[in-house]
């Protein structure tokens, strides 16, 4: 059980690091590839797509949910590293706060900022810049 919780902690940490790296690259406009290909195969230089208010809200919700789940994973790793008769596992208030409350907060965060609502109809190619580029081609 400790191995599974430790794996969860490592996975959440890796996800958080990759997400931070993505947003740093996005904010500094440093993509891995500087060119993007359209359907015709012609290469066109493209800037970063606009981060809409809905996407910004969704990103903040994902960050918040990740923090809650990370706190829970850290708590569970520490709790189970002491064994089934440790000091931390025998205190119900710690379990309620650092396990149950973190899951409830993460769940409600994603319910209030539901991806189905905030990403509905979103298409990265329909940004204002992409629409302007398509208009120039026509």
Automatic annotation (TrEMBL):
InterPro entries of this UniProt entry? RTA1
Show the GO cellular component annotation of the record.
fungal-type vacuole; plasma membrane
**Keyword terms, alphabetized:** Membrane, Transmembrane, Transmembrane helix
List all membrane-crossing ranges.
6-26, 58-75, 95-113
Q: Which domain of life is it from?
A: Eukaryota
Membrane topology is: Multi-pass membrane protein
* Listed Pfam families: RTA1
Q: Where in the cell is it found?
A: Membrane
Entries under PANTHER family matching the protein:
PROTEIN RTA1-RELATED (PTHR31465), SPHINGOID LONG-CHAIN BASE TRANSPORTER RSB1 (PTHR31465:SF9)
Question: Per its record, how is this protein called by name?
Answer: Uncharacterized protein
